[in-house]
Fold Kinesin light chain.
Amino acid sequence: NLEEAVEIYGRILDIEEEVLGPDHVDLADTLQDLGLVRHKQGMLEETVALYSHALMIKQKRLGKMHAFNAGILNNLGYVLCMIGELDRAEAMYSKALVIKEENLGPTHASTSLTISNIAWLYCKQKEWDKSMQFYNRVMHIESERTGNSDGDPYIAKVLRDMARVRREEGKYEDAIGLYHRAINMLEKLYGQDLVSVASILNAIGLLRFKQGRLDDAMYCFSRGLTIHDRVNPEHPNTADMISNLAIVRKAQGDVEGALSDYRRCVQRYIAIHGSNHPRTQNAARQVRLLTWQKTAN
């Protein structure tokens, strides 16, 4: 119960401020915890205010370069990024990075995480080359840290993030190459029947569809769907992948195949979202349209 948590933290803050004073480190910790609750509630402006207050206290009591400040700065950067204040977010992440590099070292896992956050921020700012530079730093750190550049799940995640940058930049072939590297790494680690592999195949399929390479898109969606059907047929993404298959079949002129897929989508979406959800309604509309088209022909 988040509202109950807010009420409890409010009472704790009143007690701490009265007993310990308005700039005690324990008060800052409680402000930070309350900020986390407000974040979960989606009250992002208040979250920023609470984190900022906590940061001010800790900087005053512990010094600006204390390791504890890095976590608040990182959280502030994340929330500011969510509300679109990208320049302020960059400033927070940069300060967090300096503190982590000084206190934890340049190759620590937490340092790597902040570098990754900065990389994604640059992607949102459409500074593609800067984003890739920071992701390459993460790749180097993780390869050094794990001693294995060919078989680590976090490195596979970074490859997916790098692919997303290239995708946003419009460099689809580069993105697809990075996606395939991630797939190869994950399959080497865990085998072929992995939901995350299916998700990457779906991403590749969408890019191939945008390129007009319908057969390649069909292959990716079909392979991803096969994985979902074997591993977790009730997963919400299964219905989305069937929908993507239907879109490709429709583009290929396969009305019968597209109609069959959309009918499956309707049943899956009803089970997951209910009959009034936009995805259910859209799939049902496609069924009606294709049924009419089939009858007309």
